[in-house]
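Lab notebook, bench 4. Still working through the backlog of constructs that have no structural model yet. Next entry is a single chain of 47 residues. Request: give me the structure tokens for it.
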Amino acid sequence: MAKRPGLYANINRRKRLGISRPKSKSTISAKAYKNMKAGFPKKKKRK
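Model written out:
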């Protein structure tokens, strides 16, 4: 079985095909988008 493409592969594929959505019509929440831009950091550690 082949490995399925991930999130970035799908985003870049849609971008290449010219069917990507503008940020204003995004289906991703602002919080999730910010988390992605930060490189998916691990959860904060408790002190």
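Notes after review: Residues 7-17 form the longest helix (11 residues). The two ends are 43 Å apart (CA to CA). Flag for follow-up if needed.
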